[in-house]
């Protein structure tokens, strides 16, 4: 790896932290980079917020990346800012990337959704289902940039929910990747194969840091999804999904791993070293499962007559914006025989100490209600 965790801490953009990331923070960051890089207003959102891009590097290989297409998916946005800081440092790795590549970065495509912490834009449209008709101004902006820039590679940057695990294991899918399909048969074209090789490169790195915590996202084909759409246009495209790291609901640890993945993929591209990574190893990455609850309570019958013998309770947090603060509000998701499911926090009511700890939690009344 070309950067150590201690080095990462020196380039981490500390002005942006947590899950609630809004356009004003991005505009401030970009303004501090205007003297060094090309910063442009590339369009406006439904509500008139500016959508900006940053271009850096002068190489022949063109890489387009965009984040916060879904307004409540901010982890990759933070990692992109860290990446810019690293590339500004002038290390040999940074100079090599900027010599061989031209990067065009859209840190926040959906500023209206970000402001109210929703997936959709101000017209309640999921921009990642608008790739073909392009009914929304944000969709038009992204496609316009794609057509004008004519990228050689695309990085589509997202977050995923805490429900995802890796395969059938009790490991959270802290990072997931996808080489999107380009047809309903999910065949492997030359460009999709390149996407797979780049995913293999990133997975090999991350397995040394978070072994067993990298998953492969569902590759069902949907031409209305932007990644599938760009793959259909024969541009190798990779979907990044930032997930849960134990105890890290602010996704600051995940942010760091996304940064490492971004740096790795740019290193491999800039060094023209893609063929060092076997395409077939892509399929060795387990597919994501959906076996996690934020809180799993086992043997709930001990709590009272409401719960049957051996019954479990699964609780998921609802990410709720209150003012400018994001709160994680517990919600009862499922009860019953939840064998095979896992909890990011687990209580077993047969254990007296854990039962007493559970009774002290703020969500205990939700269970008793």
Question: How would the blueprint of this fold be written?
Answer:
Layout: H1 5-11, H2 23-31, E1 38-44, E2 50-56, E3 61-66, H3 75-88, H4 92-100, E4 101-106, H5 111-116, H6 137-149, E5 153-159, E6 165-166, E7 175-178, H7 190-207, E8 214-216, H8 226-232, E9 237-242, H9 252-270, E10 288-289, E11 292-298, E12 312-322, E13 325-336, E14 342-348, H10 352-359, H11 364-368
Parallel strand pairs: 3-4, 3-5, 5-9, 7-8, 11-14
Antiparallel strand pairs: 1-2, 2-4, 6-10, 7-9, 11-12, 12-13
Report on this structure:
By secondary structure, this protein is of the alpha/beta class. It folds into 2 domains: 5-288, Aminopeptidase, CATH 3.40.630.10; 292-368, no CATH class. 31% of the residues lie in helices and 24% in strands. It has an 8-stranded mixed beta sheet, sandwiched between helices. It is globular.
Which descriptors would you attach to this protein?
single chain; 369 residues; alpha/beta; Aminopeptidase; 2 domains; eight-stranded mixed β-sheet; four-stranded mixed β-sheet; 24% strand
| Quaternary organization | single chain
CATH fold type of the largest domain: Aminopeptidase
**CATH architecture classification name of the largest domain:** 3-Layer(aba) Sandwich
Spatial strand order of the main sheet: 1-2-4-3-5-9-7-8
Task: Determine the structural class based on helices, strands and strand pairing.
Answer: alpha/beta
By CATH reckoning, the class of the largest domain would read: Alpha Beta
Question: Alpha-carbon distance between the termini?
Answer: 51 Å
Number of helices: 11
Q: What does the overall shape look like?
A: globular
Q: What is the mean pLDDT?
A: 96
Would you list the SSEs in sequence order as H and E? HHEEEHHEHHEEEHEHEHEEEEEHH
Radius of gyration, CA atoms, in whole angstroms: 21 Å
